[in-house]
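Table 4 source record.
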Amino acid sequence: MSREPDHEGEKGDTMPTLVILLLAALLAEPGRAATLDEVLACVARNAPKTALVQTVVLTAQDRTGQERVHEAKLMARRFEDGLGRVLLRVEAPADLRGTAFLLIQKEKGSDMFVYLPELKKVRRVTTRSLGGKLLGTDFSYEELERLFAQSRQGDVKLLADAEKDGRKAYALEATPAPDAGSAYTRVTSLVDQQTCVPLEIAFYQKGDAPRKVLSVDPARVTQEAGIHVPRLVVMRDLERGTETRLETHAIQVDPKLPNALFSRGSLDKDR
């Protein structure tokens, strides 16, 4: 999500996970416009305190309508230094079982690694490969880093209030830092004023039309252990005419997860 200027990479602000989409109700005085600080603060209030586990299904659909389905477990943990780590481990289909993605948040930036069972090798995701697709879906590594760790946000500003799906929304615009290696010139977000869940995130490469749009179905947002969980997230690549649906089927808030689970050395272990 978007971040306030000069706060790039600030640790302890949010829980880094597709819980990048988990936000709380904003406490603002009636009749007073919310400030950027207040909008960002509700992200932190709604994040799990320590950890999150989600059972998810990723369905990638190409322009002909053919689908490829992946079942995975998404785990996130905030460490003692306030920074977070995210692990995505594929459970199905059988030919991809054990494939894993690990994101380690740093004070500035993030380290990302991918494990491919057929190669029996862990490889680092470099700046040059940030635009690569995860599991052939419409989520790139850069978008995952932005959603999970929010470490490449650059400058952010609060725009005029908007409306999405009949709901009032706060509008944010982020300009990636010049040295971030981003594929995008700007990223805009529409955040539901009632639940503070982002209803839409648009990624722009050039011009006024977005290249990709991530959307959340407000009817599929549930409350679990005090946090709002978007159960259906859709990423659409408008240029290629493809889309990927991410559905959450089960969730655990603040379970106990061992630190060792979120290490590079654990990626080649099918757990």
